Amino acid sequence: MVITLSAMQVFGLLLAAAGVSSAITLLIMHLAFRFHIGPEIERKVDVRLKEGAARLEENLRQRLVETLLGKSDVIRDRARDLAKTGISLLSGRRPMRDYDDEGDF
Q1: Which residues constitute the domain of residue 78?
Q2: What region does 92 belong to: left with phi over 0, alpha with psi -120 to 50, or beta?
Q3: Nearest 5°: phi and psi at 91?
Q4: Cα 93 from chain centroid?
Q5: Which of 56, 99, 93 is nearest to 77 (CA)?
Q6: Residue 11: pLDDT above 90?
Q7: Whole-number Å distance between alpha carbons of 78 and 86
Q8: How far is 10 from 68, CA to CA, in rounded Å?
């Protein structure tokens, strides 16, 4: 039994095979992302957000204590930072930050 196919039929079968292969690949990638890659990314983002929130809370608490203790240089620096930020917001530019040796941002 010999099956003869025309060029159009061969092209159609080749196109169908490529379509099925692409659909299987997309299905595998969707399942991998939904059940493995996506939750892993979400977990990493949650960890980074919690770490950032803890760091922010500690920095704010430290600055509040410094301000309440009345260190004049801290108050002057914060006032300067606020003034720079306000001016840059009004002019449409991003504020320029100079980082000190203590690692404050």
Answers
A1: 13-91
A2: left
A3: -85, -5
A4: 23
A5: 99
A6: yes
A7: 12
A8: 82
**Is position 57 within any domain?**
yes
Block residue for tokens 């595998």: 28
With respect to residue 102, please indicate whether it lies within any of the assigned structural domains. no
Residue from 47, 105, 52 nearest 78 by CA? 105
If one compares 13 and 65, the residue with the highest pLDDT of the two is 13
96 with 84: CB under 8 angstroms?
yes
Q: Is residue 96 part of a domain?
A: no
3 state SS of 92: coil
**Residue that the structure tokens 């914060």 belong to:** 78
pTM of the predicted structure, to 2 decimals: 0.48
Residue 44 lies in a domain: yes
Overall number of domains in the chain? 1
pLDDT per residue over 16-75, tens digit each? 999 999 999 999 999 999 999 999 999 999 999 999 999 999 988 888 887 777 666 766
Q: Are 85 and 95 in contact (CB under 8 A)?
A: yes
